[in-house]
Amino acid sequence: MSSERKALLEKAYPEVLSFCRSLGLVFEVVDLRWGIRNVPSGDHESCEIFLWEIERCKKISAGPAFVALLGNRYGHRALPRLVPEKQFEVLLSKLSKNPEGTNQLNQWFLKDDNADPPTYILQPVTAHFPHYGDLQPENRPQHDNNVSLWRSTETQLLQLLRSAATDAEATPRQKVKDGPKRFAKYMDVATNGLLDAEAQGLLAGLKSRLYATSQKILNLHSVELTKGSIDPKRKEHAQYLDGICEQFVSQMKSRIEARMVEEVGWHIAMSEELCRGLHGREGLLGKLCLAMWESTNINHKPLVVHGAAGIGKTAVLCKLAQEMRGVLDTGSVVAIRLLSARHPQRLDVDYVLYSICLQICLACGLSPPSPLTANTHLELLRFFRNILAEVSQQGNTLLIILDALDQLSDQHHAHKLRWLPADVPPNIHLVVSMDTNSEAFANIRLKLETLESFFEVERLSREEGKHIMESSLRVSQRMLTPEQSNTVLQSFEATGCPLHLRLILSAAKRWTSFTPPTEIHLGASTQEVMSQLFLMLEEKHGKELVGSALSYIALAREGLLEAELRDVLSLDDDVIREVYKFSLPPTPSLIRLPPLLWARLRWDMKDQLEERWVGGIAAITFSSRHLVEAVSTRYLTTARRGRSLKILAEYFMGRWSGKLKPVALPSLSLLLSDRKVPPQPLWFAPGLANIRKLQELPYHLLHAGLWEELRQEIIGSAEWLYCKSRVCGVSSVIHDLDQCSQYMDCTETTLIRDALVLIKPSLDFLHDMSLFYTELLARLSSLATAFPSVIGQLCSQCSEWLLTCPEPILIPKCSFLQQPGGALQHTLSGLQGGVLCMDISVEAGLLVAGSDDGGVAVWSLRDQQLIHTLLGHTGQSEVIKCESSNSLDRFLDLHHDDDVLSACISSDCRVLASGTADHLIQVRGRQSSRARATCRTVQGEREDTLQEGGDTKLVTGNEVCCLELAQHKRLLLCGLISGTVLIYPLAMTQETLCIPPPESLSRVLCLAVTSKERHVAVAYEDSVRLFEITNRDNFPTVEGPLQSFPLSLLHGQISSMALLCDRRLLYGTSCGEVKLYDFSSDSSSDLESHRSRVTCVTASNCGSHALVGSEDAVQRLWALSPLGFFFEGVLSAAFSDTGQFVFTGSQDRTVKVWDVATGNLLYVQYVYSPVIRMLTFKNGFVALSQQGYIIKEVFRCPDHISPDYNPLRNVKAQYRVTSREKSQGGQQSPVSVYCLISMDTKTNKTNQRLAPSLDDF
């Protein structure tokens, strides 16, 4: 049936593949006879492999799992490789009168007492015919002779077994009229040229059974052969082949159904698999269960299971989960995540938390996390801790098991384990595991302090290893001789490692009772055993095939589908040359790896490879990360790594799909052939992306050094950037570009990455394609001329797509949104409430901010990632100071008798001053590792000293408004409500300096000292004054005011400020304004304002950057040199040149387009700043934003707008509803509900039209 197979491969399979991809499915064909010559393998395992593959297909497939092509030939009937002992002895008894036959059977079948029950095993052909598998040209005669001898021997053995199995009379034989050679491949013909009547009888019986049981799915064809074969050039033969392909395609499409595999089920199934054969851990499991039972009704610490790599931590946790499911109540929930099972990929901590939260919510009937929560690390962490508290209050028992925390990715500094709760509420049990030598273990030791929560998994003893060995062999129905058992245990005893023992047993299961001791080689370590495994595979399957297959699996980010692996191996010319080293491919124009070769290798690595479900499809990965490391060490040399990565990159690009790839085979100089690899489009169908390409291609292009292709296919492709942002999240695209920047010196990559960072807050919740292209174009178009190859190409793609958009759209014609590389570098969000205070530590690279709901967040300035959250505050966080320390987990309890209104801390973190509402200033000195207070007191402008238990306090006659500390000059500056500024030299306990109040007696609002402590700025209600800090006779003095400038009463009061060394003052007001005043030039400029009171302005020591935060929960990091100028804002509008549309610029920072005739809203665009002026420009407008950007856009409106079009689909809002519900005690308790709403102008529940009109705004 070779012609039919070839027709299906060329015509039918690609069409079914395309159909499956459009449904999000994978189509794989496993034709184990394709590409194989008629010489069977000498190990007799082919039939077992065929049946095993069929069972795997039935297990995995969502649709048809088996297709049979049945002609007039029954086919080769191989000898059985395994014959049970009792059955074989019965057969021998029937041959008692044939001693030669009995001797021949005993020569080829040897008894294996290691099998349970004992079994007779057919010996490999090479045991008696050593040249059977020798394909060297110089040994060709011996090979041909051995093949002929084996065929004769096989026939004799079959006859002996058949004659012994049945007493049926021989069927009369019929001579083939046209000769044996012509029809041998279409009918069963014996070596003497006669029809094999027995085979024909078996074929007739098979056809009868199929017709009786499966008539509905049978397709019958009849065709007349031409010269004994199928000729595709003949019309009737071509129609016959086309008919087969059409029937195959139509029936496959009708039977394919979708299939979903949940992650929760996968983790449970994997844990049950790992539990089998666990021995010797009863004591450890008992200690874990006892610790959980004792802490059920109290707050407690998480339990930590640790040990060396491969010692069996995962199996212990899986067994714990299994045991607890049987002990806990019916309503209890057990959530287990095996993080090491996802190697080589390292999971993000947010992914793990979201998965756990979702499972808990579904199991306990709670509301699942919202999209807003899922996309924000801080919110997800809040949700996780809240859900634990809620389940605890309900009284439900919850067990969370997280295996291998050291295998998490570095995202959000997960290895520091700040996300892991140190106190677990009652009824909740949290068990984690990690490598003893990992960074995660060192951090959790510091976090938990006591050793009661730590449980070490120790090495196994010889006796425990013996129990595991016996249990594993019993499950496999195998045994070992005493000598073999002793050899296994001696090798295992050297390490006591379960992984070592598992690898040894994988090899020992292949030993027979007659295996010579000289053929048994066991390494003294895990690495040696793996090396011997690789050596055995290379000898049996070929070094190039083994090395390439394992390398591709190790290099793939999330494993490879078997279809992908066969395709990639077919593209590897070194593998193809090894496969066809001594013979030509069956069809030289179509060269692929014969599927049987991979199936045989997969069969021999059943214990080392596993199927992992990724996005509903099964991928092949290694069963242990230690195997990945061993493969990398042995095979992934620099040359092979580069070559393999290039082949993977070309495959996922679809470079060779439908094209001829050259290869030089040993017998040919150069051959062009089709490798039959599928195309790799970015979208399989509308809305259905090629996820495998999105996951794998960037990594392989980067590390293969194909940087030009990377720029064109990934970095400079607008469709790619949007597709991956939508499917995998903007963070994944930013991560890819970060990886590129580490290896490539490419300015364009950095600029595009920064542009996506600026767009990310919108794209995290909105996945509209027009929004993505519009924002990208509005931020990058001005850079297109300077960077034409990448950014220019990207902008052209955006413009072309917007011009063909089927909906109303504004098309940017210039850059008018914040550009990458400009003054604004990052916008950080995450705090739920308004930002009241913040601080930056340049040395530690940290930014700390506090909000009015008590939340405190810590970001890393290096990657702008949220790395820590402090959720223990109940009131507002009004004062924040960031220490230059390696740990944020230690706090000082500094008690005050009244509200703290202001505070500051020295740069060396040894002096802390705080001002309270009771007119006290407390100055605390930190000595060694403990906080001890040393204080002084001044009342009004008169100095008094009060002693209280060793502490000294500064008492002022007026309320302290603000504090500032000059660390190097040891000065504490206190601004009073009276307008006076008191300066306390900390080195001179009895001295006080004073800056008298202004004539207007305005109160002091803010104080700011330069980083070099040469100047101090004092902000009053009506002015700002600059003073100089000097020394006179070794005594600090303050000279001035040197300069001042008035403040308009129409503007908000200064709420926070920072003084730069070049006499520039950056300040924010209570109205949200942010201004930069230059004392040297007496000029000022406006920065982007905030929507509410500016609460903190902090500048870096060098004055190059500043961070401004406000109560609107937004922090902006500014680069102060160079700085653009901005303008005041007003509302504006302009008509289109035709008068059909009107454009409006609103204070809500949007541009809206309205239909003049109907008053309907057509389009809304968020431009991040109010538009202060608009002028008509062709079919669009030119506008000026409050930030000083010139906006130039054209409006394109199609003739027909879909009735489903919603102009407000990209407008989303978050709101909080606070109400009070009456409790049982009669008291009311506040209840806050957070919601994320989307503007939908289609219909409401009563089907009323909600389309807005011009009057609504």
Decide which structural class fits the backbone: alpha+beta
* Portion in strands: 15-25%
Residue share in helix: 25-40%
Mass-distribution shape:
globular
Distance between the termini: 73 Å
Walkthrough of the structure:
It is a single chain. With 1257 residues, the protein is of the alpha+beta class. Among the domains are: 1-43 and 45-78 and 124-167 and 200-257, no CATH class; 281-459, 3-Layer(aba) Sandwich (Rossmann fold); 463-524; 527-702, no CATH class; 706-820, no CATH class; 1130-1194, Thrombin, subunit H (Beta Barrel), CATH 2.40.10. 34% of the residues lie in helices and 23% in strands. It is built from 32 helices and 52 strands. Strands 21, 22, 23, 24, 27 and 28 form a six-stranded antiparallel beta sheet that branches. It has a five-stranded parallel beta sheet with strand order 5-6-7-4-8, sandwiched between helices. A hairpin with a 4-residue loop joins strand 17 (835-841) and strand 18 (846-851). Helix 16 crosses helix 18 and helix 29 packs antiparallel against helix 30. It starts with a helix and ends in a 19-residue tail after the last strand. The model is unreliable at 167-187, 257-263, 885-893, 926-952, 1122-1130 and 1214-1257 (pLDDT under 50).
